[in-house]
Amino acid sequence: MTILPSPPAFDPALVSRAFEVAGRLANDAADVIIATAGRGAHPEPTESPFDWVTDTGRTLERHTRRVLADEFPGIPVFGEEFDAAPATGAEHRAATPGSARFRWSVDPVDGTANYAAGLPWCAYSLAMLDEHGPVVGVVADPYRAQIHAAARGRGMRANGRPVRLSEQRETRAGIVCTELTKNGPWRGMDRFISNAASAQVGVRLLGSPALAITQVALGHAVAAVLDSYQEWDVAGALLLATESGATVLDRCGRPAALPPDGLLVAAPGAATEVHDWWRQATTGC
């Protein structure tokens, strides 16, 4: 398998400060989400429940932007709630040539429908990225009182505890996570689920891309397959996964820090098998 080249070194003091500030923001967001979830809010008739903005999401993103602007002036922030033209990772890199070496990407409530219904499966996700992908990433899992954090080359931690996946992982009797697109099931999803079932693997759709990937990083799921997403949905969790030892592949099975269109995150030893199920279920890559 092709190995990604090592990114160039960066200022360790900047990364340490970004790691600390991101963790603080994740803790703040977790408190707000727990305090406000499940209050019966519903999307307007003109709003899609799969692409919905809540007052909590706006408030958390404003707070995140204010803090980051104070702490890291000159580093742009992209977020789900206030960027009118969201883009995937590759499009973000093309959209801001030369504007700054780094950028922040935030999803204040990943899993909005779950949050509004009071279902205990949503997250706050924040990442600092450079041209090579995520440098610092945090994912807050409020309902389990967990802050998952990672910095490139420094490993992943869950509430301060180091997390590292074992080298081998059998897929049988495991769980693979995926998510619907905004328009429903992705093309080939039914066959992918059938392929996994034939291998005695269950597939779960839980409503938060960030938490889906985080389950792989924690060793709870053998893989996560996402057919579409925005950068802020996945950037923080992808760094958790790579720093815990998981494999990240694009749609064609190539290693990528932040695939621009379709991704597979898998435990060591599971990536090839799960990618085969995905490849067989779709045409082309």
UniProtKB/TrEMBL annotation:
Cofactors (names): Mg(2+)
GO molecular function (one): inositol monophosphate 1-phosphatase activity
Entry's EC annotation: 3.1.3.25
GO biological process, one term: signal transduction
Catalytic activity: a myo-inositol phosphate + H2O = myo-inositol + phosphate
Binding site for Mg(2+): 80, 107, 110, 233
UniProt superkingdom: Bacteria
Database matches in InterPro entries: Inositol_monophosphatase-like (IPR000760), Inositol_monophosphatase_CS (IPR020550)
Gene3D superfamilies: 3.40.190.80, Fructose-1,6-Bisphosphatase, subunit A, domain 1 (3.30.540.10)
Database matches in Pfam families: Inositol_P
Keywords of this entry: Magnesium, Metal-binding
Keyword Iron-sulfur included in the entry's annotation: no
Presence of the UniProt keyword Magnesium in the record: yes
PANTHER family xrefs: INOSITOL MONOPHOSPHATASE (PTHR20854), INOSITOL-1-MONOPHOSPHATASE-RELATED (PTHR20854:SF4)
Protein name in the entry: inositol-phosphate phosphatase
Organism this protein belongs to: Saccharopolyspora thermophila
Upper taxonomic lineage: Bacteria, Bacillati, Actinomycetota, Actinomycetes, Pseudonocardiales
